[in-house]
């Protein structure tokens, strides 16, 4: 400043004019130096850092660069120059220093925020992030960061100790609890969800209360984001997963088997004892040959031992077409390439009702993919419905319009029977 004033003294201008002009020249000079320093920091230093990062084998530093941590950090350079140049203007020194310091605090907050984002991204690159997500904790850290940063900025502007402002916040604790109610509940829920391993990113969950049925794609401080199978997005409050019930299908996904539980209804009027002709036909079926041989020997031995009169089929033990059919389905499923052999496989009768006798298939496919599972299930029941008449059985079906038309066209109906 003295050098500039000495150069302007020989121009014949008044002292006041020289003071204004020298101040303007100094402001321009500091601005040029700041711009030049910022240019060097971004175009030279930053490029060298990026080149070093791109040439090493680590990935975490590349993520830091992608989150523009160093770009944001470069904004501190001109602020530092302005802060340490404030003494040149004694009348405005305090104001300039406060403005520069406030700017540096804001830049520091943005740098720390970018670092937290980078840390979250780095953590997500590991498989453990699906089991122990930390996005909720990152959001809590950001809230604390912004609150502390805001207090420091305010204290810097008003020239007060930050502890005084913090002590004043104690009186506002009730208001803060109300404002951050969801965040506090979300934090507590996040800790419980994570510690108890209740839900992970990628889990298929079902929560009818919120019309959620799909995969978890994100877990944050306040919400759990679910992409439903119709590609809609449902946002569930984190604490709702603690207070309400929901179904997690992870066990099915981990086990590698998906349950098939469906019944075929048999018309009870088609159930009968097996005749010799029927048994002869059944013995030609590959899956029943060994079963029938063993079963017939067991029945004959029982009837002979108890001196059963076999002239009447109701005496002693006899095979029924529905029993043989049930065994056929069981053997068919045991030999099916898409059925899980190490999980429960049952073909059982349920209580008969108005729709006939239910034969329930309880088994697990060895492929959990939805499309494959539905295809396997459909193929199995296609075969069951097609093979039932071979055993003299009819699948139950309520009369349709076609059945009524067929009845009207029958000779018995025309004769009035």
UniProtKB/TrEMBL annotation:
* GO cellular component, as recorded: plasma membrane
Give UniProt keywords alphabetically.
Cell inner membrane, Cell membrane, Membrane, Stress response, Transmembrane, Transmembrane helix
Residues of the Mechanosensitive ion channel MscS domain: 182-250
> Where, per UniProt, does this protein localize?
Cell inner membrane
Q: Gene3D superfamilies this protein is in?
A: 2.30.30.60
Its family remark reads: Belongs to the MscS (TC 1.A.23) family.
- What's the protein name? Mechanosensing system component YbdG
What's the source species for this entry? Paenibacillus xylanivorans
């Amino acid at each position: 400043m003295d050098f500039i004033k000495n150069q302007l003294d020989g121009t014949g201008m008044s002292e006041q004019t020289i003071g204004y002009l020298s101040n303007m020249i100094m402001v321009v000079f500091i601005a040029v130096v700041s711009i030049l320093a910022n240019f060097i920091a971004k175009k030279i230093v930053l490029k060298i850092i990026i080149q070093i990062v791109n040439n090493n084998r680590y990935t975490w530093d590349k993520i830091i660069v992608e989150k523009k941590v160093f770009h944001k950090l470069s904004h501190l350079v001109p602020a530092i120059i302005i802060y340490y140049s404030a003494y040149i203007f004694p009348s405005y020194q305090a104001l300039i220093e406060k403005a520069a310091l406030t700017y540096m605090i804001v830049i520091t907050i943005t740098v720390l925020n970018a670092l937290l984002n980078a840390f979250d991204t780095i953590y997500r690159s590991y498989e453990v992030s699906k089991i122990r997500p930390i996005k909720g904790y990152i959001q809590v850290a950001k809230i604390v960061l912004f609150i502390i940063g805001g207090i420091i900025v305010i204290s810097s502007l008003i020239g007060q100790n930050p502890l005084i402002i913090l002590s004043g916040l104690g009186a506002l604790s009730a208001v803060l609890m109300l404002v951050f109610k969801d965040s506090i509940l979300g934090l507590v829920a996040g800790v419980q969800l994570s510690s108890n391993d209740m839900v992970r990113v990628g889990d298929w969950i079902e929560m009818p209360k919120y019309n959620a049925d799909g995969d978890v794609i994100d877990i944050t401080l306040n919400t759990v984001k679910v992409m439903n199978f119709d590609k809609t997005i449902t946002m569930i409050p984190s604490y709702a997963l603690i207070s309400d019930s929901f179904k997690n299908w992870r066990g099915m996904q981990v086990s590698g088997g998906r349950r098939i539980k469906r019944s075929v209804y048999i018309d009870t009027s088609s159930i009968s004892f097996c005749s010799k002709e029927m048994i002869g036909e059944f013995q030609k079926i590959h899956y029943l040959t060994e079963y029938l041989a063993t079963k017939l020997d067991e029945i004959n031995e029982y009837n002979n031992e108890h001196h059963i009169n076999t002239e009447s089929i109701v005496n002693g033990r006899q095979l029924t077409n529905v029993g043989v059919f049930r065994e056929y389905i069981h053997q068919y499923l045991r030999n099916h390439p898409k059925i899980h052999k190490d999980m429960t496989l049952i073909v059982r009768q349920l209580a008969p009702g108005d729709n006939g006798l239910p034969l329930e298939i309880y088994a697990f496919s060895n492929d959990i993919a939805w499309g494959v599972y539905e295809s396997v299930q459909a193929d199995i029941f296609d075969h069951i419905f097609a093979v039932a008449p071979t055993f003299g059985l009819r699948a139950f079906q309520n009369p349709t319009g076609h059945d009524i038309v067929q009845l009207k066209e029958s000779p018995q109906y025309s004769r009035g029977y």
